[in-house]
Amino acid sequence: MSPAESVSSVRSEPEAQPESSIQPERWAPRRGATLRLIGAELRLVLGRRRNQVLIAGLGTMPLLIGLVLYFTSGGPHGDGGPGFIAQVTQNGLFLVVSALFICLPFLLPLTVAIASGDAVAGEASTGTLRYLLLLPVSRTRLLVAKALGALAFVAAAVAAIALVGLVAGAALFGLHDVVLLSGTTVPLSEGLVRVLGVVLYVGASMTGLVAVGLFFSTLTEVPVAAMAATVVTAIVSTVLDSLNALSAIHPYLLTHHWYDFAAFLRLEVDWTVVAQGLGVQAAWIAVFGSLAWSRFIQSSITS
Amino acid sequence: MSDTLAIRTRGLTKRFRTGQIAVDGIDLEVPRGAVYGFLGPNGSGKTTTIRMLLGLVHPTAGEVELLGRPMPQAAREVLGPVGALVEGPAFQPYLSGRANLVHLDTCDPSADPSTRGRRVGEALDRVGLGAAAGKKYRQYSLGMKQRLGLAAALLRPRELLVLDEPTNGLDPQGTREVRSLIRELAAEGITVLVSSHLLAEIDQVCTHLGVMSTGRLVLQGPRDDLARHEDRRVTVTTTSEHLVAARQVLDSLGLSDVVSGGTTVSAALGEVVTPTIAATMVAAGVDLVEMVVSEPSLEQVFVELTGEGFDVAR
């Protein structure tokens, strides 16, 4: 076809069309669009090989701890570690708690950092962010979907530790009635509920850091930078938490209440302690969630 | 509001925080149904302009109307009917081509899930990726990635396609295919804005051209008006003994810049039409072996306007 022919055929078209041919009904969001977006995000996050490997890796932690304790448990128990680690060989249920305890200072924050730091920055670095926004996906909805994707990732990681811990603990040491930190024994069924409380509390304790990571993720097109900043935030918080001179701000630190999961292992669960811990997380989510949103909503997409 | 223009900007300006002016008050006008070639050397501000048209980058000053609606305010209503390829394709590297399109379409708030499979298949076939649809994006060649980017823009019937350097990374065959794809789409009544730093790649499909140079729109209009007729030259071939006579004929007709050598004589054509030249030659007894009219290529016009060929602007 010669250029001249295409010119004439094209130029005759506009007259045939209505003046403004945008059909609002065709391009209006369909019912369930937000749910589909969230579903797509979850599939992307949980279907990604890298993330699966990471979750599987975290899942091997309780197995590793269990095996070490199993093969070294010849001597007397209670070698100065926290009560629940000493108890693992008595009751496999405590492997869940011990594994979470061991993953809490570094491995879980690292997982949170990877999940949340990658959320927006990962899409920005591959350039896919601009194509999502051109669909158009609203920035607010996209950020919500990204947050839920990161939370699902963290939840999967915590669940993997808990499930492998439970199975490995049961297989290596058996599951028995639970001796609480206060010395009282409760039936296994109640023990399971209390350990579930520990797992949920630890999971919830990560949500503030997810919000922080999401915020960093909106600041950069380099996912690793956002991940590193998130890990550093957790570390700095831990350091500040250890300085007595700063005891006035300790209750508000992101990591201060992380170990309060032990509240579930006392005779009377101290719900004030639990509520404080969750409240601090909610506050961090509110602050950094808003920061992430206000930043993302007005940023120029130049990647 | 304008209903005859698919894209219209007024004084569109982008100044970066560094103070550099990337786009300097341009008035872009893309008529509905046009294939608008958006030309300019690398770094002349084309991509920044396209990003502002699509609401990805906020203008420092000026207005944008896309399909008659103000951007970025109307982004949600307007971007649906707009398909875009901006600064290269971008997909999840660890997903296949098909899975990437399915993912993108799932995220599209107004896309119909029940027709998704068919639309994804058709888009892949249309760009010739049907056979490679199951391959991971990471393993695609540059040309295949570019094709997948086009397929994503074609997932739904659009009214306007904004294609930023769509032939980038394609071999000559691929470039031809993209050109014929653009022709097909234009024939369906879709307005196309296609940018390139190589005029030759898109010249043949364009009905309109706009030329950017260092942030300014230095030329814009229907393509055929831009080939400057006053620069056309006529070259007459005759025999060596008639050369002087032929030269006298061209002089007598008032043609300027007459140059002769060997058996040819040429001159700037001006307003004189070729039948007049032929008739006068014959009347003067000149053996007319051949007469050729040459136009300056748009490439020459382009290079003259932008002051450079392949070099980046800054």
Q: How does this structure look, described?
A:
The complex is a heterodimer of chains A (about 300) and B (about 325). Chain A is an all-alpha fold and about 300 residues long. Chain A has 14 helices and 2 strands. Chain A has one domain. Helix content of chain A is about 70%, strand content about 0%. In chain A, α7 packs parallel to α11 and α8 runs antiparallel to α10 (about 140-175). In chain B, about 30% of the residues lie in helices and about 25% in strands. In chain B, α3 crosses α4.
Strand order of the largest sheet of chain A: 1-2
Mean pLDDT of chain B: 86
Radius of gyration of chain A over all CA atoms, rounded: 25 Å
CATH architecture identity of the largest domain in chain B: 3-Layer(aba) Sandwich
Point out poorly predicted stretches of chain A.
Answer: 1-19
Overall, the morphology of chain B is elongated
What's the CATH superfamily of the largest domain in chain B, by name? P-loop containing nucleotide triphosphate hydrolases
Count the E strands of chain A.
2
How much β-strand is present in the residues of chain B? 25-35%
Shape of chain A: globular
Order of helices and strands of chain B: EEEEHEEHEHHHEHEHEEHEHEEHEH
Supply the number of structural domains of chain B: 2
CATH-assigned fold name of the largest domain in chain B:
Rossmann fold
Largest sheet of chain B: 6 strands, mixed
Number of helices of chain A: 14
User: What portion of the residues of chain A fall into strands of 2 or more residues?
Assistant: under 5%
Structural class by secondary-structure content of chain A: mainly alpha
